[in-house]
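## retry 2 of 3
previous attempt timed out at serialization; input unchanged, resubmitting
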Amino acid sequence: VGWVTTSESSLLYVFVLFFWFYVRYWSTWST
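## retry succeeded, writing output
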């Protein structure tokens, strides 16, 4: 389960980072 937790953590971290950048750019363009 250790490797699964690490894999999910890394995936979640990358997903959150990508989503954050997407929202940032979307907000900038939207304004």
